[in-house]
Write a structure and sequence with these properties.
The protein is α+β, with helices and mostly antiparallel strands. The protein contains seven helices and five strands. It folds into two domains: 149 residues, no CATH class; 65 residues, no CATH class. It is elongated and about 75 Å long. The two termini are 29 Å apart.
Length: 239
């Protein structure tokens, strides 16, 4: 039986591909070294706090398994067609444990956390549902600290099901293969076992034109976007 996908585990796997376990401590130290260098520059150049927020964490108290780079978050969001947006766009409810975790971190690190972002399916930014949201706080320099995870794990087939929607190329390929299989399955039914290559091509073109027309109509009507950039789009119509 297929198990649901835990997004935190997938993020850890994605990070482990880039960083060897033996280099973890030096990697962590390098993050904070870079942050110390860039904090002064960020404070001087940012004129609007909403453009970017840098939270100050105590290096001795952070959990290394909770630190992720924007590239790793982007990869997971694109693979599973998720969003990574500011919490002001989130329509779900924040559990009491998440609030308690924020307060705990603020006390431990003697700081005031801000600029929260969340990873969740698009519908969670429109409707109140619970499908594995991940709450992050920015650390600066493209790094985010995972504060809390709640809700349900992602279905194991979600990555496969949303693959055609990643971009136009995937969508075209999926449509072509689906129509090809449909032609093969139904050819004998329509032509009583007397189908020729010409008949099969005609049937395939019928299926393909119908599928393309339906996709275009459905896409325009529902505001669907078939690209990899919706992971950071705040617009409701782009799902």
């Amino acid at each position: 039986m297929l198990k649901n996908i835990n997004l935190k585990s997938r993020l850890l796997e994605e990070r482990s591909r880039m960083i060897k376990q033996t280099d973890m401590q030096s990697w962590l130290q390098s993050i904070f070294d870079d942050l110390d260098i860039q904090r002064e520059s960020i404070l001087q150049t940012l004129s609007n706090a909403e453009d970017d927020v840098t939270n100050h964490f105590d290096i001795d108290k952070v959990e290394v398994d909770r630190i992720f780079h924007i590239d790793q978050i982007r990869k997971i969001c694109i693979d599973y067609r998720l969003r990574f947006l500011e919490t002001k766009y989130f329509k779900g409810d924040f559990p009491a444990n998440a609030i308690s975790k924020i307060r705990q971190l603020e006390q431990e690190h003697t700081t005031k956390l801000d600029g929260f972002k969340i990873v969740a399916p698009s519908k969670l930014f429109v409707l109140k549902k619970a499908d594995d949201p991940l709450l992050f706080a920015p650390m600066g320099n493209g790094y985010y600290y995972l504060i809390y995870k709640w809700g349900n794990d992602i279905h194991p087939l979600r990555k496969l099901l949303v693959w055609p929607l990643k971009n136009v190329g995937n969508l075209t390929f999926s449509t072509f293969i689906s129509c090809l299989l449909l032609t093969y399955i139904t050819s004998n039914f329509f032509f009583n076992g007397k189908a020729t290559i010409a008949y099969d091509i005609m049937l395939f073109l019928f299926y393909f034109k119908f599928a393309v027309g339906y996709i275009l109509f459905y896409g325009i009507a529902s505001g669907k976007s078939f690209n990899e950039f919706i992971w950071k789009s705040p617009y409701n119509k782009v799902r």
